Amino acid sequence: AKSLFLNRRLTVNVSTFLTKFDDFQVFQFLPTQATNGTVLSLTNPGKVTSKGLELDISAVLTEHLQLSVNTAYTSARFDEFKNGGGIGKNYDNHYLPYAPKNNYFVALDYMRPVFGEASIFAHIDYGYTDDYYSNPNNLPGNKIPGRNLTNARLGVKVDDSWDVSLWVKNLADDTSLRQKSVSFLGVPRGVYNSPRTYGLELKYTFN
After folding, report:
1. What is the sign of the dihedral through the CA atoms of 138, 143, 146 and 147?
2. DSSP letter (8 states) at residue 62
């Protein structure tokens, strides 16, 4: 459903989905008895169901300020995953790896003329990703905690041709874990959010 309200100042879009897979395949690291390490295996869980709901809202709050909101809920599970952890160890009804249930995103955009054809603009956004599992076994030790990410930008735009801006990514310097696994030699490893970064950007558009 796509809707416009208040003389097109408010947009509300809602979507839902249901997806079913047969013969679904997944890569996973399986422990080895002989070396205490792992082996990368491509297995066939069989049946998977993914379903969810997404809401997207855009609102013109004032002449110069706009709000954007997006939220999504997803439930992705193995309907059938026989012998996923070895003979007799089934992962039926387990969550798919790297499939968070909830995601949230909020952004504010501000633009205002200041002189001639120049305008100042500012942007800030905040996103949240729910916790999720890094392995189909869904063990507590393989759960990745939820994480937050905030970005911002402030700049000047001239004549739709060029702009200069200061930006910062990961404003709160949240270096949370994003991925985790065990190497072939049995060594734990992980991938983390990039730390806070910032810079100056000059952009020119050729018309």
Report:
1. negative
2. S
CB atoms within 10 A of CB 140: 6
Beta bridge partners of 180: 190
DSSP state string for 124-186? EEEEEE--EESSTT--GGGEEPPEEEEEEEEEEEETTTEEEEEEEESTT----EEEEEE-TTS
The alpha carbon torsion through 24, 27, 28, 29 (nearest 10 deg) reads: 160
Parts of the chain with a pLDDT under 50: none
Confidence (pTM): 0.82
Under 8 Å CB-to-CB from 8, ≥6 apart: which residues? Answer: none
Alpha-carbon separation of residue 186 from 33, 87, 147 (angstroms)? 11, 22, 26
Q: What single-letter DSSP state applies at residue 61?
A: -
pLDDT, one tens digit per residue, over 107-132 is 999 999 998 889 999 999 999 999 99
Cα–Cα distance, 139 to 33 (Å, whole number) = 19
Phi and psi torsions of 58, nearest 5°: -130, 130
